[in-house]
Amino acid sequence: MDETGAKPKRSGARLCCTCNQRRAALKRPKTLEQICRECFYDVFEEEIHQVIVTNQLFKPGERVALGASGGKDSTVLAYVLSKLNKKHNYGLDLFLLSVDEGITGYRDDSLETVKRNEIQYGLPLKIISYKDLYGWTMDEIVKVIGLKNNCTFCGVFRRQALDRGAAFLKVDKLVTGHNADDIAETVLLNILRGDIARLSRCTSITTGEDGPIPRCKPFKYTYEKEIVMYAYFKRLDYFSTECIYSPNAYRGFAREFIKDLERIRPRAILDIIKSGENFRISTTTKMPEQGTCERCGYISSQKWCKACVLLEGLNRGLPKLGIGKGRISVNDSEDRNGSDRGKSIASKQCGTLDF
Amino acid sequence: MACNGTGCKSNCYKDEEAGVAEVASCTQSAERTKSGAAEANPISDTLCIKCKVNEAISGYGGIDDGRFCADCFRNNLFGKFRFSVTSNAMITPTDKVLVAFSGGPSSRVALQFVHDMQHRALKNFDASRDRSLPVFGVGVVFIDESSVSPIPSNELEKAVKDISSIVASLAPPTKELHVVPIEAVYSSESSDRRDKLIKLVNAVSDSTGKEDILLYLRMLALQKVASEFGYNRLVLGSCISRIARHVISATVKGQGYSLPADVQYVDARWDIPVVLPLRDCFAQEINMLCRLDGLKTLALSTSPHSGINSLVSSFVQLLQEENPSRESTIVRTAGKLIPFHFNRIPEIVDGKVPLATQRRQKRYSLKSNESVSSESFCYLCNSPLDKSETVDLSNLENCRSSDIFGASCCSSCRFQILPRDTTSLEQFYTLLPHFLVARSKQVNNRNLSLLREQIQDCLLSDSEDET
Ligand SMILES: [Zn+2]
Ligand SMILES: [Zn+2]
Ligand SMILES: [Zn+2]
Ligand SMILES: [Zn+2]
Ligand SMILES: [Zn+2]
């Protein structure tokens, strides 16, 4: 309520405001309530459980793949989801699905984390590599195209790799660790870019229900800060080094704005998502008609899917093919990465917010 | 991110070669680019692309910066104003319009343009033999907010003097000036209205909420003046830059549902329809015109903005500096959201609609069937409520009017303006202008009035109902 922020309180022996028994150990980022660790774990997990139940994300007996990068979001998701699956008898067969882009000194290390998670959480792991799928590693791609447009490849290839891995595992659903901050950022970005079609669906908790494998986001209402807090207190094993091909720890205007908002009004993140859900958008505003790629059969609104266009460029020694707008654009009406300019407004360039 | 994210937590810089401006976004500019031989004139960077005679000027921002000479710039800006006025039937010959003038550049330009239009109409009237087309009337209102802003009294006196001379200079035709204190939202007999207002504003603890309730009260004051003096239009100077900020702050405050109501050219949810003829003009263009034409503006000292609104303001400013079409893209996005049935001049029924308006409504599919009618409005900020926000009043057992009021406000007002506990809310309720309390009468939804019938005996009798 008071935006100027609560006065620093001397938290001597303050009691948890939930259980009133244990000492409060933290201020919950979402509500600023002072609670103990155990109550934090409870409320954190329970909120996710409620999201899963009220949105009917899963049906008993389903096979579900977790997109696992070794980072904090997917690590916490794997931990919490396998815990809830046991506790509430969801009856799910869970798998870890990782993409190996082939980035020496980065992905190989983070994959070690995922491999440890495989053992720690007892979840089978499938790794799908760019090299196997496309014949190129990111290291090799960067050697050809330099550091400039590598994110375009990164994003397009990863998206397709996850779908192919999910198909390989014969799963019914793919869950990703996109959190509330990510979704709030996407709402803002779509407003800033004038993308009404994406604006209309970016707050959906489940997407691609018409496609082969629906994706869903159990962390839709979970704050990034709480995920970090959970991982920290639980001492979860995750990998936090930045990608070596994205050297600038530059956050993007929109993300910084959201962090500033959160500081004076934590509820703002949920309010942005709420706005996104309630926007009155004409039902005739549709995404381009989806067909299949003539070359690889992947879902695509164009003759060739984006990955095939990029790949064609790489193989023909024209790596810029399909990158950016208005250049050698073969069919890049869907390109999100070339559509902005200068200093970036988005925090993640490789299309990872375009779920 | 799970699937990806850390992969390229990316932060990699964008493709910088693509640093060209986005396609012009507002209709006019798109048309202009099409018709004018804009790009086909590489002779000189400094020649005006329109007349190709005078030297172009720059510094007015937006997508047209540096393309026009002073004359063409002026004509272009007035053209945008005129286009929104005619294509939305904002002003017709029989109207009496009230221009809200704060002293700032936007409302100054709105006032100037309305005057220019009226002046032309007068010339036509004098020249015509049958004198068939009357000239619309214009009045000006200045809301004095000194009771709630730290404005020194001498500064205010000087401001009022300046405003009077500005308005006097805009004649003929003569324009009536109304200088009204914001506490006029209370009924005239209450002598302690200034104290009441201060108490009301101080009862709001959230700094953003404080700013926002003042906005709502200002609108109420404007509406009151307009209806007391027989005006039938209220002209605001809201420009692209201001509306873009509103789009973002409404989103951040969770008001996504009601947002489209605020960003259209016409907002007739009020007794006196509100029109925004500068909706397609950038703040920098407006500032430029004030400089070029020596239009006097005044900057009253106000409390520094804080909280959400100021964060949004600096965010949008940053984005606009990064890309000169960003603000208009934001407004264009919000313009694509489905407007409400009241986002058009109400008395226009099909058949009577001017041709230009018909065309525009066709182009933007502003058909009444598209603009779904809304059932109820927030009692405080008057924003249309989403179904999920309308509370079943029959659940309110205790029937306290303050509770009913609270439950009938949007969630944003409940969060940032209304006090949480019942006692403070009751206190807050007694401080509200009756104008606001009586707003419920605007709710014409049948269900709600049925509910009201059930609780009628518990509602305060609105003896002071002012409208
Ligand atoms: Zn506790
Ligand atoms: Zn990347
Ligand atoms: Zn393909
Ligand atoms: Zn010119
Ligand atoms: Zn409200």
Automatic annotation (TrEMBL), chain A:
The organism of origin for this protein: Acacia crassicarpa
What are its GO cellular component terms? Answer: cytosolic tRNA wobble base thiouridylase complex; mitochondrion
Alphabetized, the UniProt keywords read: ATP-binding, Cytoplasm, Nucleotide-binding, RNA-binding, Transferase, tRNA processing, tRNA-binding
Q: What is the documented function of this protein?
A: Plays a central role in 2-thiolation of mcm(5)S(2)U at tRNA wobble positions of tRNA(Lys), tRNA(Glu) and tRNA(Gln). Directly binds tRNAs and probably acts by catalyzing adenylation of tRNAs, an intermediate required for 2-thiolation. It is unclear whether it acts as a sulfurtransferase that transfers sulfur from thiocarboxylated URM1 onto the uridine of tRNAs at wobble position.
UniProt entry tagged with the keyword ATP-binding: yes
- Give the metabolic or biological pathway: tRNA modification; 5-methoxycarbonylmethyl-2-thiouridine-tRNA biosynthesis
Q: Which residues form the tRNA(Ile)-lysidine/2-thiocytidine synthase N-terminal domain?
A: 64-247
**Stored InterPro entries:** CTU1-like_ATP-bd (IPR056369), CTU1_C (IPR032442), Ncs6/Tuc1/Ctu1 (IPR000541), Rossmann-like_a/b/a_fold (IPR014729), TilS/TtcA_N (IPR011063), tRNA_thiolation_TtcA_Ctu1 (IPR035107)
Q: Which family does it belong to?
A: Belongs to the TtcA family. CTU1/NCS6/ATPBD3 subfamily.
Enzyme Commission (EC) number: 2.7.7.-
Name the domain of life.
Answer: Eukaryota
Where in or outside the cell?
Answer: Cytoplasm
Report the residue ranges that make up the Cytoplasmic tRNA 2-thiolation protein 1 C-terminal domain in this protein.
291-321
What GO biological process, any one, is recorded here?
tRNA wobble position uridine thiolation
Pfam families membership: ATP_bind_3, zn-ribbon_14
Enzyme class, spelled out: transferase
Q: What is this protein called?
A: Cytoplasmic tRNA 2-thiolation protein 1
UniProtKB/TrEMBL annotation, chain B:
**GO terms for molecular function, please?**
nucleotidyltransferase activity; sulfurtransferase activity; tRNA binding
Give compartment(s): Cytoplasm
Q: Which GO terms describe its biological process?
A: protein urmylation; tRNA wobble position uridine thiolation
One of the record's GO cellular component terms: cytosol
Q: Give the coiled coil ranges.
A: none
Its UniProt pathway annotation is: tRNA modification; 5-methoxycarbonylmethyl-2-thiouridine-tRNA biosynthesis
Q: Chief location of this protein?
A: cytoplasm
> What InterPro entries does the record point to?
CTU2, Rossmann-like_a/b/a_fold
Record key words, sorted: Cytoplasm, tRNA processing
Q: Which SUPFAM superfamilies match?
A: Adenine nucleotide alpha hydrolases-like
Family per similarity comment: Belongs to the CTU2/NCS2 family.
Q: Which PANTHER family match?
A: CYTOPLASMIC TRNA 2-THIOLATION PROTEIN 2 (PTHR20882:SF14)
Functionally, this protein is described as follows:
Plays a central role in 2-thiolation of mcm(5)S(2)U at tRNA wobble positions of tRNA(Lys), tRNA(Glu) and tRNA(Gln). May act by forming a heterodimer with NCS6/CTU1 that ligates sulfur from thiocarboxylated URM1 onto the uridine of tRNAs at wobble position.
What is this protein identified as? Cytoplasmic tRNA 2-thiolation protein 2
> Can you name the source organism?
Acacia crassicarpa (northern wattle)
